[in-house]
Design brief:
The chain is mainly alpha-helical. It has one domain (3-229): 3-Layer(aba) Sandwich (Rossmann fold). 39% of the residues lie in helices and 9% in strands. The protein has a three-stranded parallel β-sheet with strand order 1-2-3, sandwiched between helices. Strands 4-5 form a two-stranded antiparallel ribbon. β2 (102-107), α4 and β3 (130-134) form a beta-alpha-beta unit. The protein is globular, with a radius of gyration of 18 Å.
Length: 242
């Protein structure tokens, strides 16, 4: 259930019964022929679907993340690492102040991995809370399924090409792009990154069938839902919301 579908009195009543909340973490960055908001769209949508049928609130996605190497592509917006860390901490501080005790961070962007370190550090300072980090499509169980479909999967390739991340006026290429050397990418500046990537895809097929993408999406949502229901060290106080 989206946080925006609550008023404050309803949320206060929810907190008498449950203390879970989902925080989607996104990014605004180039995704070749896909939406600049792909990571934010994926994070928020899978979080909402994972919490469907429960009263667990899902915050609006934090749209901006860490993506300094794509800044030569128009539309890419990155936060400074220190700023990002403080934003995530401020969100967690705000949640615990209102009585939330179990926070599930769901990331749609690999570059947001520092949020995991923030969560660990923050939880050590708040030992009565639990903070889980879910890496979205990058989680091993989900990524393994993607590799069974096609091992050439990467940024802005078929693995992120869902109906809701496509841009209607931008046709998706039907061919397969040769994979760009990952070693070269790791050492690349923002300018060099654009030279290496061209359209922005890391390589592989640009698209798969909607049936295939539906199966991958279902696995992602199920994985997030498993974390929301069973990822806590003590799953006893989930109230009557399931």
């Amino acid at each position: 259930m989206r946080l925006y579908d609550y008023n404050w009195m309803q949320l206060e009543a929810y907190l008498r019964e449950d203390d879970r909340v989902v925080v989607p973490l996104g990014s605004v960055e180039q995704h070749a022929y896909l939406s600049l908001g792909t990571d934010a769209i994926v994070a928020e949508r899978c979080a909402i679907e994972a919490a469907e049928g429960t009263a667990v609130p899902v915050l609006p996605v934090l749209p901006f993340g860490l993506t300094p190497r794509f800044t030569e592509y128009p539309g890419t917006i990155t936060l400074r690492p220190g700023v990002y860390v403080e934003v995530v901490r401020d969100v967690l501080d705000g949640l615990v102040a209102h009585g939330f005790g179990r926070m599930l961070l769901v990331s749609g962007h690999v570059g947001n991995a520092p949020a995991l370190d923030v969560a660990r550090d923050w939880q050590r300072e708040h030992p009565d809370t639990q903070v889980l980090f879910h890496g979205g499509l990058a989680e091993p169980s989900v990524w393994a399924l993607a590799n069974e479909v096609d091992a050439e999967a990467g940024h802005a390739s078929w693995v992120e090409n869902f109906p809701w991340t496509r841009v209607g006026a931008a046709p998706t290429p039907k061919d397969r792009k040769p994979m760009v050397d990952r070693g070269a990418l790791r050492a690349a500046s923002a300018t060099r990154m654009r030279e290496l990537l061209g359209d922005g895809s890391f390589g592989g097929p640009y698209a798969m069938s909607d049936d295939t993408m539906g199966e991958l999406w279902a696995a992602l949502v199920a994985d997030v839902r498993e974390a929301l229901f069973n990822g806590w060290t003590d799953n006893a106080s989930t109230g009557s919301h399931e």
